[in-house]
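An example makes the point: we let one protein speak, the chain in one-letter code, the fold tokenised, and here it is:
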Amino acid sequence: MRSAVPKVLHPIGGRSLLGHAVHAAAALHPEHLVVVVGHAREQVGSAVAGLGEELARPVLTAVQEQQLGTGDAVRAGLAALPPDVRGTVLVSCGDVPLLDSTTLAALLTEHTAVGAAVTLLTTELDDPTGYGRILRRAGSVTGIVEQRDAGPDQRAITEVNSGVYAFDAAFLAATIGRLDTENSQNELYLTDLVGIAAADGATVGAVRCPDEWLVRGVNDRVQLAEIRAELNRRVLERWMLAGVTVVDPPSTWVDVQVQLDADVVLHPGTQLHGATAVGTGARIGPDTTLTDCEVGAGATVVRTHGSGAVLAPRSSVGPFAFLRPGARLGEGGKIGTFVEVKNADIGAGSKVPHLTYVGDASIGEMSNIGASSVFVNYDGVNKHRTVIGSHVRTGSDTMFIAPVQVGDGAYTGAGTVLRNDVPPGALAVSAGSQRTIEGWVRKNRPGTPAADAAEKADVSAASDPAPGPGTQSADQTGHPGRGGTAR
């Protein structure tokens, strides 16, 4: 992988490669679940602990001190099990992310039905390069030969080993010590146990997987991208068959944990990650990325980036909104263009239409926050909260210096800086009378384009007739403190 990240921790579809493998195995409800770790054991072990918490069940780790092959890895894994373990031991791989629990269950069923010592999962590949070949005699499996040890005739075999096995626990414990390193890699090959079982006259079973994608492994980033795309294709296909519209599947990415209700529409460029859930009839995108968000029925989210947000039914977000963790929008509410919301509750029917930052705030119902407003929540050391009531109308460019409260039904004037609480029904203003200094540009910025334009305007004004009765100049029409908001 040429990466500081261990191969099995590379993510696809919202989980690491290892996470997919462990989830598939855990779905069978095994009595013991063990992950063998070796390379980068600290990172992988930490990920395993997280998977145990996620699955709410014990997931043990066994350490392979030296990477001496698959047989040595299984020997390490056995050491983590009780010495008297009985039944079936399933061996899977941490880099085969599409292998599902249904396929594993079919392998276990066949293994138990025939009472085999070992049953392996195989598949047919047009190009089997790199995989161990299945050796058969009269239809029965007699062994597996690895690519490096295979002769020309054996390399022509297209049935390959997936690296997934079901072993009788007693057989595995009794024979794992018989493996040797007489091969091109000087490793202990788990595959040799198949030949040992056949030579001992034990039953060797095989289940052929008809879908080669399910047993494809990942060894480099090219294969990682191929399997990521195939997983996403399958996820989208499942949701489309369940009643979700995906306008452009190639540009739409949905993680495996995401939940979508019927009649959801995903527009091009949509990415849904983590535990995101979208309600009936909601419309997401285009060009929207949501992580761990909850979107209510009938809501619309357009050209928005969000994480950890909750949007109630029939709410509207975007375009070009940024939802940070703790953003909560009430039913029918609106977060508009170039609005950032963090750790804030915005009540039902309330609107923050444009060019505003709302951080650490509570806004009641049916209120409107004017354009270019800022909830000033940080004093350089601590965060503080702003509380705004219901049916409040705040003018454009209002600064809320937290902690501050604005009562129900109150108004603020455009350009107001609020440092004190506003009672219900009051109008708060802080701007003084406008001051105009005539000729300032020509005096202080001579020779600039602005000065030239002003001089031309003065010449033009001098040649115009005097204004008629009742006409006022521009500086006479201002109303200091006048409430106003762009909408």
In short: The two ends are 52 Å apart (CA to CA). Confidence is low (pLDDT under 50) at residues 469-481. The longest strand covers residues 334-346.
